[in-house]
Amino acid sequence: MSYKSLFLRSLGAAPDRLHLAAHSHHLWPDASFAGQVECWEDAARLADRKWDRIMGELWPQAQAEVAAELGTGQPDAIVFAANTHDFLLRLWAAAPRRADGPLRVLTTEGEFHSARRQFARWVESGDIALTKLPVEPAATLAGRLAAAAKDADLVLVSQVMFGTGTVVPHLDKLAAVAEPEGPWVVIDGYHSFMAIERPLVNLGKNCFYLAGGYKYAMSGEGLGLMHCPPGFGPRPPFTGWYAEFEDLSLPPGQVGYAKDAMRFMGATFDASAIYRFLHVRRMLEAEKLSTFAISQWVAERKAALLASLEGTALAEAEILNPPGPGPTARFLALRHPRAAEWQQALLAHDCVTDVRGDVLRLGIGLYHDDEDMERFASIAARLD
């Protein structure tokens, strides 16, 4: 069985490529092309009135899809932006300062570059005081963060670590310490959204959650999303004019806010990603492909990929996230001093992977089948 027919445009654009970086830039299915075209056609057909359809029809549909995927049942807690970095800025500005001095931020040593870099720059400028905990042992990370959160205003942790594929368990322990007056808990879900089934169930009451369409949502860039727990940050300082609708209780001239997640909304945006996302979700529904079903498909291919390493140079690497019970990342992380060298050698065979320091990452998606795993085995066998 194969699902390549859902990705004919992307696969046909580079037919000789073996793209094992679905965790990095996930190939776009044909349904996303239809969404992009519909966005353009709506702009031509409706002109100024396109916003009535986008905000009145498509936005609520996208909110409902995200809430269902997260397992929260709270569509009005979802807001969209161009990327998650936009939301990081809004959260930094809105989070309560419970002590004198800069915002106290607690995070880990394994966060993605956007947070790592921004936090480092804010430390330089004196805008935050930063504490970082080691990821390992991952089994105790949530508890260690919860214990340290008493001295923090904002806590940010990835649900799946982007570098190693480590899944962080017991986040309910961390969620339990979150309060509207601080600390705030932010879960970076970029590698769990549409990769782990219902990743925010039982957590959405207290936690913010960041994710996007670029990876397993298969919708491309431009779809940053955030789940906003009710009562946290009713008046964000960074605010666009879209956030002021529906607050009619204030006197004229006052800055009003929506009561739901729209309070974190910005201003005019490119809506094409929402169109793409909704078309992809309809495709998955039509194919009866849930996140659980896709994860099973990926797990089977991942097992074959792992087996193909035996007897090759890659067998020398340490597997940082070996398959096991429970949720797993959609990629294999292989640590070895030759990781960058291997990445280039694979690329010479038109096999696309990526490397983070000394970690080679091999990502699998719905567009892979058994023949792809056999081809990778053949390429890996040629590595010195």
TrEMBL record:
Keywords: Aminotransferase, Pyridoxal phosphate, Transferase. InterPro entries: Aminotrans_V_dom (IPR000192), PyrdxlP-dep_Trfase (IPR015424), PyrdxlP-dep_Trfase_major (IPR015421), PyrdxlP-dep_Trfase_small (IPR015422). One of its GO terms (molecular function) is transaminase activity. Residues 60-284 form the Aminotransferase class V domain. This is Aminotransferase class V-fold PLP-dependent enzyme. The lineage of its organism: Bacteria, Pseudomonadati, Pseudomonadota, Alphaproteobacteria, Sphingomonadales.
